[in-house]
Write a structure and sequence with these properties.
Length: 341
């Protein structure tokens, strides 16, 4: 791996709430940041107002964050490139970036999802699209709600990479010495970290359904715990380590995402529990809720790997087959009894 020129800048591709929060964090760490937005209108609005009023209103961005809609400008001389776009857009954005990326830039996937058509993790999508990417690629995950990061509340996460030095470089890049906001741990379990961040989204939808139906904490705790069991079973079958799912990218992220209304996935589930149709919920949300397409993928992967995932199957029926929330939860409760494992 080529040495990195630290006199350059970091590029963040994606000016949604998460990309904007990461750009702010990097700027607070002393980085010059090019924040790429898909549209000229969004980039100009961020520049004019000094904040991202569409996705992260009320959060002032420092001058070190420079919005742009020109990917070539964002990537030129970037020492690190953060892909902070939804999973469904990752391949397209990577294709746009391929010919423009500096050959020695480190790459970070900050998306928590799976590609719906292929079932691939984001590191796999980037590796397919960007030749030689895997050796300089890392993935970020954990209980990191964008609004809280932007507000400076303390948080922790995990950055995973095949090459340990890449993970350590990302850890250093995001670490603050004087005003710590995000504490990062490193991992070499790229499979487990990415799957943990993806699977918790659909469990968070189910947790929101419980609250939307007015059920108590017992029901939600049971559902989240059994959902985590499913995540471990599939994760291990796909090459991840079971212990990873008990860490920040699994249990930690699930707790944060299923806790309440800061989470888009939870809000989708809550509205479903209230009886609203999915199409109306997503239209009102106005942003991607990764747990919806991820449920499609997980059911397919469970079948391919012969892993039983009853919660995932129940959520699929609710999201895509017109079943009611009460019906699918009743069916889950009335499944044949068995030992806990």
């Amino acid at each position: 791996m080529q040495p990195v020129n630290r006199h350059t800048h970091t590029a963040v591709l994606g000016a949604g709430s998460w990309g904007t929060a990461l750009a702010l964090l990097l700027a607070q760490n002393g980085e010059q940041v090019q924040l790429w937005a898909r549209s000229n209108e969004l980039a100009e609005a961020i520049r004019q107002h000094g904040e991202n009023r569409r996705y992260l209103p009320g959060v002032t961005l420092p001058p070190q964050v420079q919005p742009t809609a020109h990917m070539g400008h964002a990537l030129q001389q970037a020492h690190t490139v953060v892909f902070a776009v939804p999973s469904g857009a990752m391949r397209d954005v990577a294709r746009q970036a391929e010919a423009l990326l500096p050959h020695n830039a480190l790459l970070l996937s900050a998306a928590k999802g799976l590609e719906e058509e292929t079932g691939l993790r984001m590191s796999e999508v980037l590796s397919q699209t960007l030749p030689g990417a895997l050796e300089r690629l890392a993935a970020l995950s954990g209980p990191n709600l964008a609004v809280e990061i932007a507000q400076g509340f303390p948080a922790a996460g995990v950055v995973a990479a095949v090459q340990q030095e890449v993970a350590r470089s990302m850890q250093k890049l995001f670490s603050q010495q004087n005003t710590p906001v995000l504490r990062l741990y490193t991992s070499t379990d790229l499979v487990g970290v990415e799957l943990g961040g993806a699977i918790k989204n659909q469990i968070a939808i189910a947790a929101g359904v419980c609250d939307g139906l007015g059920f108590g904490e017992n029901a939600k705790a049971a559902l989240m715990t059994r959902g985590l069991h499913e995540a471990v079973r599939l994760g291990v079958a796909m090459g991840g380590e079971a212990i990873t799912f008990m860490g920040l990218s699994g249990a930690g992220d699930l707790i944060a995402t299923a806790a309440g209304r800061l989470s888009r996935n939870y809000r989708v589930g809550y509205a479903l529990g209230q009886g609203e149709p999915l199409c109306s919920i997503l239209a009102e949300l106005g942003q991607v809720a990764e747990g919806v397409p991820t449920t499609h993928v997980l059911c397919r992967l469970a079948k391919e790997h012969r892993v039983e995932m009853p919660l995932c199957s129940a959520l699929y029926r609710l999201l895509f087959e017109g079943e009611t929330a009460n019906t699918v939860l009743r069916d889950l409760m009335l499944r044949p009894t068995r030992p806990e494992k």
